[in-house]
Every structure is written in C-alpha cells, then in structure tokens.
Specification:
Order of helices and strands of chain A: HHHHHHHHHHHHH
Structural class of chain B: alpha/beta
Number of helices of chain B: 14
Distance between the termini of chain B: 57 Å
CATH architecture of the largest domain in chain B: 3-Layer(aba) Sandwich
Chains: A mainly alpha (268), B alpha/beta (359), C mainly alpha (308)
Distance between the termini of chain A: 7 Å
Helix content of chain B: 25-40%
Helix content of chain A: over 70%
Radius of gyration of chain A: 22 Å
CATH superfamily of the largest domain in chain B: Periplasmic binding protein-like II
CATH class of the largest domain in chain B: Alpha Beta
Number of domains of chain A: 1
Number of helices of chain A: 13
Shape of chain A: globular
Number of domains of chain B: 2
Oligomer: heterotrimer
Strand content of chain B: 15-25%
Largest interface: A-C, 113 and 107 residues
Number of strands of chain B: 10
C-alpha cells in the first residue's frame, strides 16, 4: 500500500473542511436564541429541549429512518443483483433494458413523483391497493435507488479480474457458492458504497416523498422543506445537528466494533 | 461482522417491517350504530395554525388531529387529484384556485346546517366572487402583498412600487417575490392596469419592467425568505406577504411594511373539504370551531394576518386592529384586487414569466 | 444468434447453456428490471402519452391529442417565436458539465487519499464523506448562504483581496452556485471512483516508473485505465441528476434564471400545465440519454465499457 504524500493529506483535509463547513454553521446556529432563525441573538440550548417535546418531529424522524433503512435494504439487494447480472450474463433485450435502467436517474424528481402518483391512483381504482402511505413511499424510493446501486456495483465488476471466480468454479464451487464466497466479498465495497448512496438519496428526498405519502407518514425532508420555506429556524438546525452526531457516532462505533475482518477477506 | 448472510437477514427483516407498517385505508362510512373514534386529517400551510387551537379542538370534540403540510396551492391540488380527496378532511386553498377545484370536482359542498358560526363572517367574505354562496369554502385568513424594507431613522419612504421598478429610485439591494401572479400583479398595478388583464401589450410592457428590475435586484425569493433576509440585514427591501412582514416589524422596529399607493393584490385563504373526505362531520365541526369569535381572534393573533370574522374582531389585539399593515384603511382596500384564475389565458402569464426569468 | 450456440459455453469459469444463462439473468437482473419497469417505466409511458394531450381550461388533462406542446418547446409561443426552451436545456447541460468537471477534480485526491488509509480509518474516512449528505440539502444550501453572506469570513476575505464590494454577499453568483453544486454531488463521484481506486494494481504503476516513465505518463497509462470504470460511473451519477437540479442554483444564484428543473416545476406547479411539463421533461430526458448513448458509442470504439 502506498504511503500518502503530504500534499494529498493537505488537499484532502481541505476538502473535508469544505464539506463540513455548512455542517458547522448548522451546528452553531442550532444554539441561536433568535426564534425566527434570524441573525445571532445569543446562546441557548432550549431548541434541543423543545425537540424532544415535539411529537410530530420525532414521528417524522422515525418515519424517515424507517423509510431509509427499508428502501435501502430492498434497493441494495435488487441493485446488486442487477449490477452483477448485467456484468456477467447475456439475455435478449439486454441492451434495451440497460438503457431503460437509466430512466430513474435521468428523470426529474417532480416528473417521477407525478408519474408514480398517477400509477398509484390507477392501481387503487383497479386493484384497491396502494393507499398512499409509508409503503407507497418505500416502493417509490426503491425505484429511484436501484439504478444508482446497480451502476456502482457493475462498475466494480467490470474492473475485476475474473480469474479468481474462474478458479473457484474450476475447483468445483457451485454458482451460488462462488458468488457468496468469492464474488460478493470482492465487490462488497461497491455494494456498501451503493447502499450508502441509496440511503443518502432516500434521506434527502422531498418531492417524491411529498407526493407519495399519506396522512401521518410525513418524513423529515417534508417537514424541513415546509419549515425552510418559512425560514430556517434553530430547531431545524438542532434536529440536523443531532442527525449528524448520531451518524458520526454510529460510524465510529461500527468501525471500532470490527475486529480486523478485512485481513480475513483478503483486502489489501 | 458485516457478512453477506447477516446483511441478507437484515434486508429481509427491514422488508418485513416495512410491509407491516402499511397505513390503514381511510375508514369507510361507519355502521349506523357504533360511534367511530373522532379523527381529522388536516392538510395545511406550515405555521398557519396555532398548535393551541388544534389542542383545544382535540379536547373539545375528543378528536385526534393529524397535520400534513404543503407549501403551495398547486402541490395541494396535485395531491388531491392523485387520490388525496379521500385522504384529507380539511384543506386550505387560496381564493384563485377554488373555482378551479370546484369545477374539477375536488371539493365537497359544505352543509350549512353544521356551520352555525358562518353568521360571524364579515359581509365582505360572505358569498365572495370566487365562491358564490360559500358553497364550498369559508374564508380563513386574508391579507396583502407589499414592500418590506429596512429604513434609516427619519428616512422618508416614497410608498410606491416604483422603488423596485423605477431605475431612477435607488432603494438599496432588493428582492422580488418568486411568485407569478403576485409579482406580475404588483407590476401591473404600478402601471395602472388590472391584475387579471389579458391584454398582450400591457403584459409585455410589464414583462419588460420586471426583466429590468430583475437585473437590478439580488434575485427572486419567496415571501418569508425575503422578510428573513431583510431582518438579517442581508437585503434592504423585499416583496413579502403582510403577515410575515408584521412579525418582522415586531422583531425589529427599524423595518417597515407598506402596500404601495398604486394598490396591489388582495388574497384570501379558505377552509374547504375535499370531495371524498373520510371524516366529513369532523371537518365541518372543525370549520365551525375556527369560525368561533375567540378562536378566530386567537388565530389572527398568532398569525398576524387579518381575520375575516367580524365577531372575532372584538378579541383581536387592539394594536393589530389599528395596524394598516394588517387591516388596510378603506381607501387602500378600494385599490386592492383579487387574483382570478384565467383558464386558457394563464398561458400568457406563464410564457412571460419564463421569459422574464430566463433573459 | 450466431454468437450463442446450443452447446454449453464456459463463461467466467462457469459451464452455462443458453437456457442456464437466461435463468441466471432472470434471477439476478430480473427482479430489479421487473420492479423498475412496473413502477416507473409504465408510468413514464403514461407521461409520454400525456405530453401529446391538451390542457383544459381548469388545468385538466384532456383530449384532443396534439403536438402543440412540442411546437411550443421549439419556440412557437402565444406571443411569437422565442426559442426559450432550447436555451434553457443548453444552460442546464452546461451547468451539469461544469459541476461534473469540478467534482472530478475534487474527487480524485479524496479517492486516492481514502484508498491509501489503513483498514478502519478507510471506513471512517469514506463514511465521513457521506455523512454531511444525511443532513438535508436545503439546510446545507441555506448554510452556504450564511457562509457567503456579507458579514462572513469568506466575504471579508474577498473584500480584503479586492474581489468584492464591502457589505455585499458573495452570492448570488456563479461561484456560489458551483460551490453549492460541488457540495451536493461530491459523494456521487467519490464513492464510485473510490471503489475503482481501491482496487488499483500498483504493481503496474511501479513497473511503469521502473521502466522510466515520469509521473504524468504513469498516471495516464498505468493508473487512469484502471480507474476508468469508476470514473465513468461517477460522471454518469453526477452529470445526469445535475441536469435536473434547480434548487441550488435558485438559492445561491438568486433564482434569476430558468433551468430545466425550474421549467418543469413551473408547469407542474404554478401553471398547472401537465401536458406541457411532460413534454419538457421528455425532451430533457431524451437529450441526456442521447448524450449518454453517444458517449457510449464513442467509448465502444476505443474499447471502453459503457456504464451499464
């Protein structure tokens, strides 16, 4: 493994600072005493206290997490399968379907939201299914997440040396065994990266969620979007700060809990 | 720790969890004997109702209220068209979309026998031009669109739209409102035209005016954003809704709101019941509750917008009643116009707005 | 079907009949394709159909079928000929291309940096790139407004250097918009690029350098081809969504211009002309897909793999 040269350290740290600058602003302003999110008025922690007192915000946070985890799980499964299948196998119409998989990436949010809304309305008329709510949101999120996961996974597969898989097959492994024991560990970074992308997409989605949700299933982005239109109030900043803190804590915890599994999987 | 097997397990678990959380379908018409627990699904603009009012209604009627938010009339209409008519019980449309919603069959007629408090409405809002007979809507709050700015002590302000549209005037940095009819309507008033005109020459003049103003401005912003930027001293002047402006002036007395002397837009937001509302009785109880004088006043005191409820005026904060920013004097009221939906002629405004923004 | 025979072939070490390959495709790609086809492609066909319908007086979608929306897109408006929409589409493409370039430039150092870290640090560093994106984009963009406001550090520095006026914020401006776009799309470039960089066979680079190649040549010929798939994936994942982006340009550019996203939003929103909005969306999507197809063809000639 290459040692990291100093200029690279400096550039990267600067980029991280750039990425986190707005986060720092959000954290600082979550202690702003100005009610309507105006300029700095003094230090207070009361917005954190009121957060715990707002059932609608807590419900929205819970909905957002549920939505994100469920949709990410499903879309990562589907997307990994798609990425793998497109990289390895041929079938009639493959070219056409490959291009059609781009549609969720190319389509503007509002068009997708409207398209799904109309689809659900039609399904409701014909089949009585798909009342707007959490499930319809999950289905909609999975739909736009799948291609992102697939694109990342496939790009990793394309660059991979097939010799190891071939060796596994030569040694008598069945297709499933070869996939689970050999291929999957090798593409795992791409699968995880795809999952993180999918989760990010879900957490930040407003338009599709707004149009496919039902009463009581509001998510944080919907709540935040409405509040933001009124002006970023400190309690929104407090909520975002908590999200960041929880994510960072979770990441560090997960990393610390791992006991050098990477060496076992043959990672460099 | 992160093995493929566990990952698959987690995925399946998440999927199972997701399937369990299916939102229940709205309750169908209840059997005549049993009394269903009272529920109300309110679909409303954010920060437009006092949470205390909601709690009071819940306590009085024993109802559970869920609140969902939207930020513009068209999103709400789109949601209703896509099946929301059977999800929500009360919506809050602006005056210009009510005829449209009625024609599209999105609203249920109001059963007047359930609304005794209708009598409290100010005559101006009884049977308005956009909803004759109040068949589908009841006024909720009303107000104006004007200029909100920060002024230096003892500075004399020329109360005209020309502050923004006349290149000779230099009001400092300013923002325009990112809303087609409000902004174009204000410019039309400056030129002395009607806000609902379909005269191409007039409209093109106004488009030129706005394009030039845009170049001198710091951009377009929603009403609240503009008010916040003025408060934050990032901008000197902005086009805002009066309620937001009044909240701003209370925060910072160096700021000031006025409707320019040429006149402007008058808007009314209304309560309405979607066509297939699942809890129609609760919806009408809620509307009647809002029409109560004390509740109407509480609402306006919270919002700093004007109440259409004549009986409520007795309980509105006295200084609000005399504030011309909330209740314009009669001479100004005569110069304020409702925006109406122009049907096929909407396209004129749309094309011009696109070109104003685009050039 | 000359290429495929009935005899079992060996592909990637597996003995597969054609039927076996189809079965495996169905198992792996099938679910995803079925899902997206049902939930999105069919509705999008519906949107395409709507783009040929007309807008009723109250904003309803109705017959008759007409090509009027497409004529309007070409510039034939009620007020005369004005090719606004081709300009709007071009503007969006330019912004997306600029964003992609900026993201590429920023992602390379980050990807190499993260790949060069040890085990746990690598994971943490990678997730740290993504965490800011779990706060809402709107909030982050508003935070940029504060960061670029008239009293901010950045503004004061710019005034000191003479690049800005006293008391004026650094937005709305093109710089602010690109900063915001970079901030929004960085992980979509870093993550795919990183997955490629992580698997680089450094032996090739070392061999090249041993044989006398200088740094630039080593990069171009030994490293770049290895990261190309990741790079292409990243470019796709940034460029395409960026063409539809309008919230960031509105917040940091003063909403003074119309991009593809604005135009579509306006038709589905304030103007309630869904047929026209559908037409704009379809043409926008077609333009982007065509660009992709063109790039894939050009890439195929030089032997590069397309992204999907």
């Amino acid at each position: 493994m290459k040692r990291i040269p100093l200029p690279l350290w400096v550039t990267s740290i600067l980029l991280y600072v750039f990425l986190y600058a707005p986060i720092v602003v959000v954290i600082v302003y979550s202690f702003n005493a100005a009610r309507h999110g105006g300029p700095w008025r003094g230090f207070t922690t009361r917005w954190y206290a009121t957060l715990l007192d707002s059932p609608d915000k807590l419900a929205a946070a819970r909905n957002t997490l549920e939505l994100g985890l469920a949709s990410t799980a499903v879309s990562t499964l589907l997307g990994t399968g798609l990425g793998f299948g497109l990289a390895r196998y041929r079938f009639p119409g493959k070219k056409l379907f490959s291009w059609l998989m781009y549609v969720p990436v190319v389509i503007p949010d509002i068009v997708m939201a409207v398209a799904m809304l109309m689809f659900y309305a039609l399904m409701r008329e014909w089949l009585g299914l798909f009342e707007l709510g959490m499930t319809t949101m999950i289905f909609a999120h999975v739909t736009f997440q799948v291609p992102f996961v697939a694109i990342v996974v496939r790009s990793r597969m394309v660059g991979m040396d097939p010799a190891i898989e071939e060796a596994a097959h030569d040694l008598g492994a069945s297709s499933l065994q070869a996939f689970v024991r050999v291929t999957l560990p090798m593409i795992l970074p791409a699968v995880v990266a795809g999952a993180m992308l999918a989760f990010t997409l879900s957490l930040d989605d407003f338009v599709v969620s707004f149009f496919t949700t039902g009463p009581g299933a509001s998510t944080l982005p919907i709540l935040i979007y409405s509040s933001v239109k009124r002006g970023i109030t400190p309690d929104i900043n407090a909520l975002s700060t908590l999200i960041v803190l929880v994510s960072v804590a979770g990441t560090v915890a997960v990393a610390l809990l791992q006991r050098s599994p990477r060496a076992q999987r043959g990672e460099k | 720790m992160f093995t493929p097997k566990r990952f698959a397990l987690a995925a399946v678990a998440a999927l199972a969890l997701a399937c369990q959380k299916q939102e229940p379908a709205p309750a169908p018409a209840p059997p005549p004997v049993a009394k269903e627990p009272c529920q109300l699904n309110l679909f409303i603009w954010s920060e437009y109702i006092d949470p205390e009012i909601v709690k009071a209604f819940e306590a009085k009627e024993g109802c559970k209220v869920t609140i969902d938010l939207y930020e513009d009339n068209e999103s709400m209409i789109a949601k209703l068209q896509g099946g929301g008519t059977s999800l929500y019980d009360v919506v809050v449309p602006g005056n210009y979309v009510i005829p449209v919603m009625t024609k599209l069959g999105l609203l249920a007629p109001l059963r007047k026998e359930n609304l005794p408090n209708l009598a409290n409405l100010d005559p101006k809002f009884v049977s308005p031009s956009f909803d004759p007979g109040n068949t589908h809507s009841v006024a909720y709050q009303w107000g104006t669109v004007g200029i909100y700015l920060r002024r230096k002590p003892n500075q004399k302000i020329d109360e005209t739209w020309g502050l923004l549209f006349d290149p000779a005037k230099k009001p400092g940095s300013f923002l325009l409102m990112d809303s087609i009819r409000e902004m174009m309507g204000s410019a039309l008033k400056y030129k002395g035209y009607g806000v609902n005109t379909t005269d191409k020459t007039q409209l093109q003049q106004v488009a030129k005016l706005l394009t030039d103003a845009k170049k001198r401005s710091q951009g377009f912003e929603g009403g609240v954003g503009g008010k916040n930027k003025v408060l934050a001293k990032a901008i000197t002047a902005a086009v805002v809704y009066n309620g937001d402006a009044v909240k701003g002036t209370k925060d910072d007395p160096d700021t000031y709101y006025f409707v320019p002397r040429e006149g402007g837009i008058l808007w009314v937001d209304n309560l309405a019941v979607p066509a297939k509302a699942p809890h129609r009785d609760a919806a009408e109880k809620f509307i009647n509750f809002i029409l109560d004088p004390k509740i109407g006043a509480q609402l306006s005191n919270f919002n700093q917008y004007a109440t259409p409820n004549k009986a409520a005026r007795a309980f509105v904060t006295p200084e609000d009643l005399t504030n011309p920013a909330i209740y314009p004097p009669p001479e100004m009221m005569a110069k304020l116009e409702f925006v109406t939906d122009l049907g096929d002629d909407n396209r004129l405004y749309d094309e011009l707005w696109t070109s104003i923004k685009s050039k | 079907m000359a290429a495929r025979t009935r005899r079992p072939e060996i592909r990637f070490g597996e003995h597969l009949t054609w039927a076996g390959e189809i079965a495996r495709s169905a198992l792996t790609s099938g679910p995803a394709i079925a899902w997206v086809s049902t939930f999105l492609l069919l509705p999008v066909l519906g949107i395409a159909f709507i783009s040929f319908l007309s807008r009723g007086t109250y904003g309803e979608i109705q017959l008759p079928m007409t090509a009027g929306n497409y004529l309007r897109l070409a510039g034939f408006g009620v007020l005369g000929f004005d090719p606004q929409y081709p300009v709007i589409i071009l503007r969006s493409l330019v912004l997306a291309a600029g964003t992609t370039v900026v993201c590429l430039v920023a992602s390379f150092p980050l990807a190499f940096f993260i790949a060069g870290l040890a085990g746990r640090a690598k994971q943490i560093a990678l997730t740290l790139v993504v965490i800011p994106f779990w706060t809402n984009l709107l909030i982050r963009t508003y935070a940029w407004q504060l960061l670029l406001g008239p009293d901010s550090l950045a503004a004061r520095a710019a005034v000191a250097v003479g690049l800005a006026e006293e008391g004026m914020p650094l937005y709305p401006s093109a710089l602010a918009v690109y900063l915001g776009m970079l901030c929004a799309y960085l992980p979509f470039m870093v993550l795919p690029l990183y997955t490629a960089v992580e698997k680089i066979d450094w032996a090739i680079a070392e061999a090249a350098s041993d044989l006398g190649a200088d740094g630039v040549r080593v990069f171009r010929h030994a490293l770049l081809p290895q990261v190309m798939p990741g790079m292409v994936a990243g470019v796709i994942l940034v460029f395409i969504p960026a063409t539809g982006q309008f919230v960031i340009p509105d917040l940091l550019g003063g909403a003074k211009t119309v991009l593809l996203g604005n135009a579509i939003q306006q038709q589905f929103g304030a103007s309630r002309d869904w047929p026209f909005g559908s037409a704009i969306a379809l043409v926008g999507m077609a333009v982007v897909l065509f660009g992709l197809w063109f790039q894939a063809r050009a890439g195929a000639r030089t032997g590069e793999e397309g992204p999907l």
